[in-house]
Specification:
Blueprint (H helix, E strand, L loop, with lengths): L5 E4 L1 H9 L3 H11 L3 E5 H23 L10 H10 L8 H15 L7 H18 L2 E2 L2 E2 H4 L2 E2 L22 H5 L3 H12 L6 H6 L1 H5 L3 H10 L1 H10 L7 E4 L3 H9 L4 E4 L5 E11 L4 E10 L3 E6 L9 E6 L2 E11 L8 E6 L1
Parallel strand pairs: 1-2, 1-6, 2-5, 6-7
Antiparallel strand pairs: 3-4, 8-9, 8-11, 9-10, 10-13, 11-12, 12-13
Helix pairs in contact: 1-2, 1-3, 3-4, 3-6, 9-14
Length: about 350
């Protein structure tokens, strides 16, 4: 790799970079430094905003609904009320929510905020998130022109194109002008075992027989199923792609020898720190040494056994600034060092 190359940050890489504080996120920033420039795309931003932006907006709205907006109270108490006002399904899932709430509770650890103050702060964080998306390696991707766009179109929202796509509807570059390669990539995923595969496979005939706006509107109606494919075709020629999603590797192998895919999942952070472990299932506790950590799990070495597969544990201290729940998913073999795999929740 030379410094003349460019790095494309896919949605999962952006979320890890900006929200997996600590070594993991910093690792991505270090990678960026080795490239000439980093970039992303219009659809990646849309996906990022659908997860990160929406979660912030939902949290802010739940603080808005708390009665007595200007009464100072402990953050824990305010959050208790706000939490009961959250919708059942949240973008990004419980891990992401708990990460944001941990940050908030640390901010207000030694003072009493009001509900209005928290809501305003969360809204400012949302704006900051949208801005941070574009800043990588101290450069603004908007200024360097590294935000690819072959996806913007009214079909994702309210379709306004009538007989032909409007000039500003750029999804046509992917789906209509490159119809053949686009359909080939849809077929590739339809016959794999990725998340989107089943739906694509079931609807393959319908997709193949749709032309022009009809095809655009099918794509626009299922951003979750077509998202990876749309992003894949937004990546400029010859770039490196940083993602944790294996779908991009499948697509690259079948369609784009010009791209290099780096998966974030493979690279775990080396950490060395002690933390307390409480086995909630068995009611015992001890100390473990963390061997490595990722967004979703850690390897932890213990001096004495800490439990069995399936036990619920709580990790606290050291690497974990606030306690994290987890589950033992791997136990050491007989006579092997006591290294456990813990999946974080
Ligand atoms: Zn349109």
């Amino acid at each position: 790799m030379t410094s003349e190359q460019f790095l494309f940050l896919e949605t999962s890489a952006q979320i890890i970079r900006l929200y997996n504080a600590g070594d993991f996120g910093r690792g991505i920033e270090n990678d960026i430094e080795r490239f000439r420039e980093a970039g992303s795309s219009s659809f990646v931003f849309a996906e990022f905003d659908r997860v990160v932006g929406r979660l912030y907006r939902i949290i802010a709205e739940s603080f808005d609904k708390i009665p007595n907006q200007d009464r100072p109270a402990r953050f824990k108490e305010l959050w208790g009320t706000a939490q009961s006002l959250l919708p059942f399904y949240l973008p990004g899932g419980p891990t992401f929510l708990s990460m944001l709430v941990t940050d908030l509770s640390e901010k207000y650890v030694d003072r009493l905020p009001t509900a209005r103050e928290v809501a305003n702060f969360v809204r400012a964080e949302e704006r900051l998130a949208r801005e941070s998306f574009y800043i990588a390696g101290n450069k603004d991707m908007r200024a360097t022109g590294r935000i690819a766009d072959r996806s913007k179109c009214c079909v994702w929202d309210v379709m306004t194109c009538t007989s032909t796509p409007a000039p500003e509807c750029r999804l046509k570059l992917t789906c209509i002008e490159e119809r053949k390669t686009f359909l080939e990539s849809v077929e590739t995923l339809a016959f794999r075992k990725r998340e989107e595969s089943a739906w694509l496979n079931k609807n393959l005939d319908k997709i193949r027989s749709a032309y022009n706006l009809a095809l655009l509107s099918i794509v626009g109606s299922k951003p979750g199923h077509f998202g990876d494919i749309v992003i894949f075709w937004e990546v400029p020629a010859g770039w490196f792609v940083l993602t944790r999603d294996k779908t991009f590797l499948e697509l690259q192998r079948a369609h784009r020898p010009d791209l290099t895919i780096w998966t974030v999942r493979c690279r775990r952070t080396q950490v060395s720190s002690q933390c307390e472990v409480t086995n909630v299932t068995k009611g015992m506790s001890g100390v473990v040494e963390l061997r490595n950590a990722s967004a979703t799990g850690v390897a932890a070495e213990a001096k004495t056994p800490i439990g069995n597969k399936g036990d619920k544990v709580l990790l606290q201290g050291g690497y974990f600034t606030s306690s994290r729940q987890g589950e033992i998913v791997r136990t050491p073999g007989k006579d092997a060092p006591l290294v456990y795999g813990v999946r974080l929740r």
